[in-house]
Specification:
There is one protein chain. With about 675 residues, this protein is of the alpha+beta class. The chain is elongated. It comes from Streptomyces javensis.
């Protein structure tokens, strides 16, 4: 069913039509479906489809089946499953909080399902999420006539009664308005798509053969409760197990948060290999932490968590990554009926990271195929946890390092409004662009925008040397050109080269720089606005481009005197209040390339209302195909549209223009410094 307001109505007609078709075809146990069960199933499927349309926003699939058990005395049951194609979107069911955003507001949804259904749960797959519920039908004899069942009336009492009756009236009204004819032909039959609803879009249909093979193979080696295992050849089972492991590896790869790894692991295991599972993570400073609890019946998750917190498993230290049988817990309310359980230590690189505990009801012991599959799966989970911890550790080191490389706040310059935007391309290694604004004494204020050639720890060393050198030289009274001359000489000294090479050798072996979501630093007039990250990468870095300048107030509200020089850096622009843009300064060679060079500075006045824009090449060279952002003076054209805006608004306008220039984010660090005379 496509994502539309008519999906819930179509789902209700589908369930009614399926029940009518089964009765007409004399499907076994179809005559035991009472009106009470039918009404309650229609109500619940309506709630779940509405939930999926509103919160997942994808096409929806509905399946309806009669589960007839071979066990004596166990009544048949009606099973309905609603599937959407947004597995990362959480299932909403609780009433919204007063301060919750409107887009997350939910109805009675899962509360109603939990009250009415005999059992229910959620199944996560790689590309889909399914919510199912199961309802027992009459034990024998034809369906009895009747109205709403007692379970439904209990749920109505738990809800607002008026709201519940309004919902039922609205459902009947929508069904009557959308019906195209009487009888089963007017709704959904098996394999029939209702008129006006249209086919499911390509790619959103049933799972592919490979996925079905993996799921079926798991059901063969670990049959669900009440299911009779089907005998297949060992090669077929092995092929399905490999498909399951390949899917698990694909999902776990690239996850750099250990809690996300444990969440995915639980969703992969339950209900394919187990009815419930729990994962503990070891800690160097305390007892293991229960990171994830998962149960096929979601109503039991909280009770299971409470029991597990009191009874954590203690696997013998001699067991290194192997699965051992574990006594089935004694609390049936949390775990379900008796079965087989396994505990497995999560070990990667010879180091224990945690413990996996899982169980499957209805088995005396886990089949050998399942034990081997779980051990292989546990190794993949352990490797993903080890990668996530390395990433977290490296990101923490980089954030600490950044505090020494970039200023925490931008000081207020009298009579000048300032804004800085800094967007690195990664978050676990330092380097790349840098900036600074500081007082130099005698009423002078200095500003710096630089870009080290390269990034990683070597670039961080250069940045860590250049910023304090600049501050020291400026406060010693050297002019703008002289500061660059002496900085160029310092970069050529052997001690700097040794420091850079030492930084490269100090990189911890085995810790790779992995790109992640960009952090953003934004500083406006002394205030820290955003978070921060650091770019990833590496390479030898001793050369840098630099834009360095000084501001001196002219007094009497006349503006400031600006003196600056550019060493291999994109030239700054000045915007007048009337929208005219001009380039200031002359291009000169990079710092650290040639020893015997003299840098020249340029001075000009910035009057009230004028704005100075300084950027790194991450702005000017941002690419869209064969074009760059600054081709045909693209930066100047964007800057000209910023007349009358504040420094912060100018920075936001330019940054937004860069983001909109290409569909892909910038692949280089981006930094901007905006100074506007008030």
């Amino acid at each position: 069913m496509p994502c539309s307001p008519l999906a819930a109505s179509a789902a209700r007609r589908f369930v009614r039509a399926a029940l009518a078709d089964w009765a007409a075809l004399e499907v076994p146990a179809a005559d035991r479906v009472t009106d009470q069960v039918a009404d309650e199933a229609v109500l619940l499927v309506s709630e779940l489809v509405t939930n999926a349309v509103v919160h997942a926003g994808t096409a929806v699939e509905v399946s309806c089946a009669l589960d007839v058990s071979d066990r004596e005395g166990e009544p048949p049951s009606l099973v309905v499953e609603v599937t959407d194609h947004h597995p990362t979107r959480v299932v909403r069911g609780d009433p919204p909080d007063a301060d919750e955003p409107p887009e997350y507001a939910g109805g009675h949804g899962l509360r109603l399902v939990a009250e009415v259904a005999e059992s229910w749960g959620t199944t996560y797959r790689r590309a889909t999420k399914s919510v199912w519920f199961q309802m027992a039908v009459a034990p024998s004899g034809p369906a009895a006539a009747g109205g709403m069942g007692s379970a439904f009336m209990d749920a109505v009492d738990a809800m607002d009664a008026a709201a519940a009756m309004d919902a039922m009236d609205a459902m009947d009204a929508v069904d009557a308005a959308s019906a195209t004819g009487a009888g089963p032909d007017g709704g959904f039959g098996t394999g029939v798509v209702p008129e006006g609803v249209g086919p499911v879009p390509e790619g959103l249909g049933p799972v592919g053969d490979g996925r079905k093979e993996a799921v079926e193979a798991v059901e063969i080696v670990a049959p669900g409760q009440g299911l009779v295992p089907v005998r297949r050849d060992s090669e077929w089972i092995q092929r399905g197990a490999l498909s399951f492991l390949a899917e698990a590896s694909d999902l776990l790869a690239g996850q750099f948060d250990e809690d996300m790894v444990t969440s995915l692991a639980g969703q992969l295991l339950v209900p394919r290999l187990a009815d419930w599972c729990a994962i503990w993570l070891d800690s160097t400073s305390g007892p293991p932490r229960l990171a994830r609890v998962w149960h096929a019946s979601e109503g039991r998750i909280e009770g299971l968590r409470q029991v597990l917190e009191k009874e954590p498993p203690h696997v013998p230290t001699a067991v290194r990554g192997g699965a051992v049988e574990w006594p089935w817990p004694a609390d049936p309310a949390a775990y379900g009926p008796g079965g087989a359980a396994l505990a497995c230590r999560l070990v990667a690189g010879g180091r224990a990271l945690g413990t996996l505990l899982l169980g499957r009801a209805g088995l005396v012991r886990m089949p050998a195929e399942v034990v081997g599959l779980i051990e292989d799966f546990a190794r993949r989970v352990a490797l993903a946890l080890a990668s996530a911890r390395r990433y977290t550790r490296q990101a923490t080191i980089s954030r600490v390092l950044q505090r020494g490389l970039l200023p925490s706040v931008i000081p207020r310059i009298p009579g000048v409004e300032s804004a800085v935007v800094y967007e690195p391309t990664g978050e676990i290694s330092a380097g790349g662009d840098f900036y600074d604004v500081f007082p130099a004494g005698d009423g002078r204020w200095c500003f710096v925008l630089g870009d080290v050639c390269g990034n990683g720890p070597e670039a961080a060393v250069v940045t860590g040397l250049v910023r304090p050198w600049l501050r020291l030289l400026a406060r010693e009274g050297y002019g703008v050109g002289e500061v660059l001359d002496r900085l160029n000489q310092l970069l050529g000294e052997e001690a700097v080269e040794q420091a850079v090479e030492g930084a490269a050798e100090a990189v911890v072996a085995g810790v790779e720089a992995v790109g992640g979501p960009a952090g953003v630093v934004e500083l406006v007039d002394g205030g820290l606005v955003g978070g921060a990250g650091l770019p990833a990468g590496g390479g030898v870095a001793r050369f840098l481009s630099l834009l360095y300048g000084e501001l001196e107030p002219l007094g009497d509200g006349l503006g400031v005197r600006c003196t600056l020089a550019s060493a291999g850096h994109p030239l700054p622009l000045v915007l007048r209040p009337d929208g005219e843009v001009r380039t200031v300064a002359e291009p000169q060679i990079l710092l650290g390339v040639v020893d015997d060079v003299s840098y020249e500075s340029e001075s000009f006045d910035l009057t009230p209302g004028e704005t100075l824009l300084c950027v790194t090449d991450g702005v000017t060279e941002h690419r869209s195909g064969d074009r760059q952002f600054d081709d045909e003076d693209g930066l100047a054209a964007t800057f000209a549209l910023c007349a009358g805006l504040s420094a912060r608004q100018v920075a936001e306008r330019v940054r937004r223009a860069v983001d909109e220039f290409a569909p892909d984010p910038p692949d280089d660090d981006l930094a901007m410094l905006v100074l506007r005379v008030q």
